[in-house]
């Protein structure tokens, strides 16, 4: 089913998945906080990524680098010079837009000029999406129609300008003559600047990292010298990144502070195409293994003009979000570009010596670069389901058990006959292995619904039959099927279900 974005955002707020950052002060655009359920969900996603890509492999090691690095890193990587988006300001609304994501919505009405001659009146709206652009003029159009009559043509939405995707600095040209109240596009660097030390002087400028990848390249030699790694091998990192996005939007999808899960996989140059094909497939399958099974998950190869100049092949793993098909992860064959750049700027030798072949060379790299927040949002969209149980409608988050924030909830049917004590003992036992929840308040049906909304795969209820045969009721979230399990075997039964 297709989830509506506002329904998902309101569920996330209501149930404590995601809150606007510093909301008591009116929030701050582009920043989000994960609540009690959200933090568990996102941690489970990051842990699944780390487990599957680092700990389960023999050819991968991890790193955790600092967020602020020597600013030369960002000169070498090209971020100081080129990490920018084209930006325009609207003088009328004082809004700022990314020019390559700006839409103009135009109505043309028949009108008369001051001499009484027939002419045309234009009504235009600007927005960061076609819907945004259409919103304002639709109301005003109704008023104009009363005055002038019907528009002469159906309204159209056009992108403000087309940007050369291979070289974002280059504006091919506006797609409308009517630039109206917009300033000329100019490039805007997306890195957050700060000062290190007491002096707010140019010489102390530093940046919050806009990606985690460069920390990996900067540590390439440290890892080779200390970790006994041999090509081919990868270095992985999960951590916060910061980009001063011009238009943060679509909930957590485009934030100014976000978390990345990145791998740099180093190999011999001639083996790079094979490793690229391997990671392109492996990373796609990782999402399906955690439940992104629908046709909404896609793999799109970049065509030649979309490729960065140093890349011979790049593919995006995309998801059809309610606001459009958008990137979850990029897998790029980056050649030896990054290590070569860092050698140039640092003056240090970052080449690799192959002991067996007695050869020295600069490894090539394949980079699968994912966003933890975008993955979390995709899993939320995929899981969101509205269905009917016993004639009653319910909202259920059908998370894969591995990423579900709470694995099981334990209930006493009623608060008497020793049921709470028994349920609590089971809860304490389960808690040793899993994140579980205990709830004794309210009607049992309501308690089930609350867990369905939190995405809890199993509920375990102690009821009157428990007092006679020492079994408990297990309930499956998706099918609502119920069956009985000996109380003493509840922990093992849950483990089997979660692993199965
Ligand atoms: P986009 O074109 O959507 O801005 P990008 O191509 O600039 O993304 P990369 O630089 O390839 O993104 O970053 C790798 C990953 O980091 C992305 O696939 C995404 O999951 C995540 N990411 C990048 N920018 C943001 C952001 N502003 N908010 C949340 N996640 C992000």
Topology:
Elements: H1 5-14, E1 18-20, E2 32-34, H2 36-55, E3 60-63, H3 72-76, H4 79-82, E4 84-89, E5 96-98, E6 103-112, E7 118-127, H5 130-148, E8 156-159, E9 161-163, E10 171-174, E11 186-189, E12 193-195, E13 205-207, H6 213-218, H7 220-226, E14 233-242, E15 257-267, H8 272-289, E16 297-301, E17 313-321, E18 324-335, H9 337-346, E19 352-354, E20 359-361, E21 364-371, H10 372-383, E22 384-389, E23 392-397, E24 408-412, H11 419-431, E25 436-438, H12 444-454, E26 458-462, H13 464-469, E27 471-476, E28 482-486, H14 490-499
Parallel strand pairs: 3-14, 24-25, 24-26
Antiparallel strand pairs: 1-2, 4-5, 4-11, 6-7, 6-8, 9-10, 12-13, 14-15, 15-21, 16-17, 17-18, 18-21, 19-20, 22-23, 26-27, 27-28
The structure holds adenosine-5'-triphosphate.
Structure, explained:
This is Glycine--tRNA ligase. It is an enzyme of class 6 (ligase). The protein is an alpha+beta fold. It folds into three domains: 267 residues, Bira Bifunctional Protein, Domain 2 (BirA Bifunctional Protein, domain 2); 106 residues, no CATH class; 94 residues, Anticodon-binding domain (Rossmann fold, 3-Layer(aba) Sandwich). It contains 14 helices and 28 strands. The strands form nine sheets. It has a seven-stranded mixed sheet. It is flat and about 90 Å long. About 3% of the residues have low confidence. It binds adenosine-5'-triphosphate. Adenosine-5'-triphosphate binds next to β15, β18, β21 and α10.
């Amino acid at each position: 089913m297709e989830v509506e974005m506002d329904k998902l955002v309101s569920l996330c707020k209501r149930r404590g998945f995601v809150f606007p950052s510093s909301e008591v002060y009116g929030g701050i655009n582009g920043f989000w906080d994960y609540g009690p359920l959200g933090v568990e969900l996102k941690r489970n996603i990051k842990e699944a990524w780390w487990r599957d890509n680092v700990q389960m492999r023999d050819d991968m090691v991890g790193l955790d680098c600092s967020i602020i690095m020597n600013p030369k890193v960002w000169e070498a990587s090209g971020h100081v010079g080129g990490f920018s988006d084209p930006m325009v300001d609207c003088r009328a609304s004082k809004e700022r837009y990314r020019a390559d994501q700006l839409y103009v919505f135009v109505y043309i009405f028949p009108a008369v000029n001051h001499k009484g001659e027939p002419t045309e009146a234009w009504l235009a709206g600007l927005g960061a999406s076609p819907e945004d652009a259409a919103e304002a003029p639709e109301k005003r159009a109704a008023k104009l129609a009363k005055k002038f009559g019907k528009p002469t043509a159906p309204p159209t939405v056009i992108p403000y300008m087309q940007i050369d995707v291979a070289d974002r600095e280059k504006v091919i040209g506006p797609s409308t003559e009517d630039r109206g109240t917009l300033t000329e596009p100019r490039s805007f660097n997306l890195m957050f600047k700060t000062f290190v030390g007491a002096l707010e002087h140019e010489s102390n400028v530093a940046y919050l990292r806009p990606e985690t990848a460069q920390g990996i390249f900067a540590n390439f030699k440290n890892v080779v010298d200390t970790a006994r790694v041999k090509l081919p091998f990868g270095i992985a990192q999960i951590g916060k990144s910061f980009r001063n996005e011009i238009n943060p939007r679509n909930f957590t999808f485009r934030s100014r502070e976000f978390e990345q899960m990145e791998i740099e996989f180093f190999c011999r140059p001639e083996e790079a195409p094979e490793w690229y094909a391997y990671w392109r497939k492996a990373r796609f399958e990782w999402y399906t293994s955690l439940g992104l099974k629908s046709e909404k998950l896609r793999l799109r190869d970049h065509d030649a003009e979309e490729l960065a100049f140093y890349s011979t092949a790049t593919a995006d793993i995309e998801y059809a979000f309610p606001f459009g098909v958008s990137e979850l992860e990029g897998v790029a064959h980056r050649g030896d570009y990054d290590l070569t750049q860092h050698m140039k700027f640092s003056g240090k030798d970052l080449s690799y010596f192959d002991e067996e072949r007695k050869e020295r060379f600069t490894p090539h790299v394949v980079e699968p670069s994912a966003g933890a927040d975008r993955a979390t949002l995709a899993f939320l969209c995929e899981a969101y389901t509205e269905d009917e149980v016993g004639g009653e409608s319910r909202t259920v988050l059908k998370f894969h058990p591995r990423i579900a924030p709470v694995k099981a909830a334990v209930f006493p049917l009623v608060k008497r006959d020793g049921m709470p004590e028994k349920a609590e003992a089971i809860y304490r036992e389960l808690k040793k292995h899993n994140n579980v929840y205990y709830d004794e308040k309210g009607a049992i049906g309501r308690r089930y619904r609350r867990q369905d909304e939190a995405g809890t795969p199993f509920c375990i209820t102690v009821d009157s039959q428990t007092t006679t045969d020492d079994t408990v009721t297990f309930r499956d979230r998706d099918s609502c099927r119920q069956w009985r399990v000996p109380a003493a075997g509840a922990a093992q039964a849950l483990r089997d279900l979660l692993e199965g």
